[in-house]
Design goal:
alpha/beta; 5-stranded parallel β-sheet; 42% helix
Length: 230
């Protein structure tokens, strides 16, 4: 686990390094708010331990800056001497995931860091879907087949997500119609048109690969299992 410590007190920094590094953690340190914010935005960390009172940019503003930056989902634990209820509320509203008051227990701090990382990992896994050659990042809606990016319009994206979630099982026509139109599907066979569009985007550009979108006539659609003849 890679941890960024944004803390200007050298004794606390030394204390954290002495405790965490022998346990296998990788630590980086910034001693000002501006330096910490720059490091948090430039590098992907697993967890950030953030002091509330920093030279330059205040800890609350650093927290807000991280939340509006490219690595906005990184777990943040505020470790600060500010100990009132309002301080804690302000920290959490600024974007902190957890809040500890100095002085602190190193064992408890480690446990909280591990818990934050565990929850973050679970959230990240929930945002990724994959089946065979298809991979979907639900957070960014990026779709790839065999590592090649595929741009899908909203309707095709919804269909593919439903198919990947169910794969390799069959998805009924009615289920896919609901994904697109909820309880108000069009009278015409519009689903066929949308499926055709999806096929043009995920199968046609890959002539050297087996077709992945399978039609079960009159029933529904599914994604081909590995090495299946379409």
């Amino acid at each position: 686990m890679r941890i960024l410590i944004i803390e200007d007190n050298p004794d606390i920094v030394e204390n954290l390094y002495e405790y965490f590094e022998p346990l296998g953690y990788s630590l980086d340190n910034a001693i000002s708010g501006s330096a910490g914010l720059a490091m948090a935005n430039d590098t992907a960390f697993d967890v950030i331990v953030l002091d509330g009172m920093l030279p330059g940019i205040d800890g609350l503003d650093v927290c807000r800056g991280i939340r509006s930056g490219p690595n906005h989902e990184v777990p943040i634990l505020m470790l600060t001497a500010r100990d009132t209820t309002q301080d804690k509320v302000d920290g959490l509203y600024a974007g902190a995931d957890d809040y500890m008051v100095k002085p602190y227990s190193l064992i408890e701090l480690e446990a909280r860091i591990v818990a934050l990382h565990r929850r973050s990992t679970k959230r990240g896994a929930a945002k990724r879907l994959s089946y065979g050659e298809i991979a979907i990042d639900v957070g960014t809606r990026q779709v790839t087949r065999s590592g090649v990016s595929v741009d899908l319009p909203p309707s095709s994206y919804k269909l593919l997500v439903a198919l990947v979630k169910a794969a390799p099982e069959l998805v009924l026509r009615e289920t896919l119609e609901y994904e697109l139109w909820q309880d108000d599907p069009p009278m015409s066979d519009a689903l066929r048109t949308h499926v055709h569009s999806l096929r043009q985007l995920i199968d046609k550009p890959f002539p050297d690969r087996e077709p992945i979108l399978i039609t079960v006539s009159g029933v529904g659609y599914r994604l081909a299992a590995s090495n299946e003849e379409a």
